[in-house]
Amino acid sequence: MSDEELLALFENPETRSNAFNHLVRKYQQKVYWLIRKMVVDHDDANDLTQEVFIKTWKALDKFRGDSKLYTWLYRVASNEAINFLNKKKRRFFIPLHDVENELSEKLESDPELSGDAIQLKLQKALLKLPEKQRLVFNLKYYEELPYDEIAEITGTSVGALKASYHWATKKIEDYLNDTD
C-alpha cells in the first residue's frame, strides 16, 4: 500500500485504525533500526519506537504532505533519539565520553553484533561522532538516502550535510586506522 493510500485511509474515521496498523507494519523496522543505531540499547530503541508511533498517531491528521511520509517519520524518530541522548546526559550529569563508554559496553554485549568484529569496530567509531553527524552518517550510509531527503529529515542544508558526512567519514576512518 502506498503512502498516499495509507493517508487517504487514515482520513476516513472508519478506516483510520486499519491504515495506522498498515503504516506501523510498513515502517516499524526501519524506524526501530534508525533509532537503535543512535541509542544502541534494544530496550531504549523499542521504547522510543513506540513513542514515535504514538506521536505519529496524534499528529498524522495534521500531516500536510509537504514531505514524503517516511521522511517525516524519520524526522520524528531522529528527534526522539537525539532528545533521548541529550536527556540522558543532562539527567545524570554524564559527560559525553561517559555516555560513549556506556553505549560502547552495550555494543560489546549485544547479541546482534556478536562475532562481527568489523561491525563492532564501526559502531564504536560511530559513537565517537556527535549525534547529528552520527544521524547524517546513518541516513546516508545505512539508509542510502539522497542528501535532499536527509535535508528534509534534519532541517539542514544539502551543503552542510555533505560537509557533515565528509567529516563523519574522516573521523571514522581515523578511528579505524588508530585502533588497528
UniProtKB/TrEMBL annotation:
GO molecular function terms attached to this record: DNA binding; sigma factor activity
InterPro entries named in the record: RNA_pol_sigma-70-like (IPR039425), RNA_pol_sigma-70_dom (IPR014284), RNA_pol_sigma70_r2 (IPR007627), RNA_pol_sigma70_r4_t2 (IPR013249), RNA_pol_sigma_r2 (IPR013325), RNA_pol_sigma_r3/r4-like (IPR013324), WH-like_DNA-bd_sf (IPR036388)
Keyword line: Sigma factor, Transcription, Transcription regulation
Keyword Transcription carried by entry: yes
Ranges where the RNA polymerase sigma factor 70 region 4 type domain occurs: 120-169
One Pfam family it belongs to: Sigma70_r2
Domain RNA polymerase sigma-70 region, residue spans: 23-91
Metal-binding listed as a keyword: no
Secretion signal, residue range per the UniProt entry: none
Coiled coil segments of this chain: none
One GO term (biological process): DNA-templated transcription initiation
Family (UniProt): Belongs to the sigma-70 factor family. ECF subfamily.
PANTHER family linked to this entry: RNA POLYMERASE ECF-TYPE SIGMA FACTO, RNA POLYMERASE SIGMA FACTOR
Identification of the protein by name: RNA polymerase sigma-70 factor (ECF subfamily)
Organism: Dyadobacter jejuensis
